[in-house]
Amino acid sequence: RIFSFLDVVTLCRCAQVSRAWNVLALDGSNWQRIDLFDFQRDIEGSRGSPSCSGHLCQVPSSPQPAHPMGFLWPGVNPLQELSPRVSSSTCTSLSKFCSKLRHLDLASCTSITNLSLKALSEGCPLLEQLIISWCDQVTKDGIQALVRGCGGLRALSLKGCTQLEDEALKFIGAHCPELVTLNLQTCLQITDDGLITICRGCHKLQSLCASGCSNITDAILNALGQNCPRLRILEVARCSQLTDVGFTTLARNCHELEKMDLEECVQITDSTLIQLSIHCPRLQVLSLSHCELITDDGIRHLGNGACAHDRLEVIELDNCPLITDASLEHLKSCHSLERIELYDCQQITRAGIKRLRTHLPNIKVHAYFAPVTPPPSVGGSRQRFCRCCIIL
Q1: In the CATH scheme, what is the homologous superfamily, with its name and number, of domain 32-38+98-216?
Q2: Taking a C-beta distance cutoff of 8 angstroms, is the pair 251, 280 a contact?
Q3: Which residues of the chain register pLDDT less than 70?
Q4: How far apart are CA 318 and CA 345, in angstroms?
Q5: Are 129 and 155 in contact (CB under 8 A)?
Q6: CATH 3.80.10.10 spans which residues of the chain?
Q7: What does residue 76 show for φ and ψ, rounded to 5 degrees?
């Protein structure tokens, strides 16, 4: 029990003290969660017991103090985030020796291929969370192989997997009914067809990121509203084809929404905010940056909505040219508001922000006001410019 409180490095040191301590230190119960982010040197001849790998449940990638360390299971280099050494052979070893693996982060490991996912599918059937963001060699064939063996996936990040098409999503929708979190950011080839399959097959979905998937339309919002009532997080920044019609259907059916990123959804108007204010009482974070049709009236409805008084924490209104100080007046009653973004809202004034702060003294307001250009020098012929103009 004492050994169960020790970190990885201390366990390895204790394992060298005696045979008895070696058995205790390398007991599988001490190795259910390990972090190898900064273990970048491989020391040959110092290996951990293969018996511990059978108990491995999680391989995260958060930073820890760097220490030299040998292999933990035969043939597997210590996993690192952003490490090109993590490849198909690594995944083969994980498959062979880590059958209880549940969480694996391989973000930006660009050597990961379809064969890597096939190996994980065959040997790690308990996998629940997989991050393969920016693994741009992965195609629909790899996803098909993965989900056939890992049908219990609950969280899957495919951000930046640019080769993925709708066919890959159809495999996920057909084989992963437990899926809760899905990240498809910048998967540029994704369209309505693939995402609708996800909505119909993954009714437990709570978090979806499709930011940058510019081909999707209101059909996705309708499918989410009809099939995924537990949705809490929706990120669809830069999806410029989405309109008020789709968001109306979404809001009327997904009452648990907490975070929405609608940046550069340029077609939405105050109508979307009216629907959110009526049907989404749990809304905490809302990004409306570059939604240039939003006006003070929409913010007024939001400020009077069910989420306003004790839920809404962050609202981003950068580059909303129709927003004025009146919007800040409407947000005074949002007592939980912690941060508001107002960059390039040219009708917002310092006086309006000051009045808001008298009601919400702890709020963080991010805004920018260009310095006033000074008048020409009296009696001089040379024009004076403000600092911004000089920089430009």
Answers
A1: Ribonuclease Inhibitor (3.80.10.10)
A2: yes
A3: 35-87, 371-392
A4: 6
A5: yes
A6: 32-38+98-216
A7: -115, 115
